[in-house]
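Step 1: inspect the first sequence and its tokens.
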Amino acid sequence: MIIRIFRAGIAPDRAAEFETFLRETALPLVRDQDGCLSVHGGVPLEGAETTEFCVVMVWRDEDALRAFAGDDWHQPHILPEEEGLVLTRALHHYRSTDSVLL
């Protein structure tokens, strides 16, 4: 299994708009992909000094992730709806060693 963590820094005045996009568009899109075992969105805690959001996904294998994200799955992508909302982005991948996820 592959754990994929996407982090996005959002313009402070557009954080609420991005949260709506995350809940209504991005998470359902990922959740519906074949091979996506789980997906969770993270929003900044109240009072946080940052407007960084995250999405934590668990994928069955590299083939499933590649089918979703393409051959350049190691690179962060944003949907057209996110243009102007995302200021920074980072993407990290990990191989799962937790047998609980199996």
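Step 2: inspect the second sequence and its tokens, then contrast the two.
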Amino acid sequence: MLTAGKRLAVFSIREGKGGSIWVRAGSAFVNKDGSLNVLLDVLPLDGKLHVREAADKRDTAQAGGGGGGRYGLDGGLDSLPVGGHS
């Protein structure tokens, strides 16, 4: 549920030969009226963005880097198929 003050992570997901590549594109914050402020560090090549709840850095550190992955994804980024570089 989106509540005021909630921190969200913004990703650009690229499909490659070996699977999906998730690139952190920025952050988003929920305003009191339910609208979002989106702060981008990069622009997606395909114009698509994926927004999800960001994990607390404390939770990731306590889990030894595994629980929640680098960006708080269920199963972590390490569990997603990743394509190689050419």
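Step 3: confirm your contrast with the notes below.
Residues 58-86 have pLDDT under 50 and may be disordered. The two ends are 39 Å apart (CA to CA).
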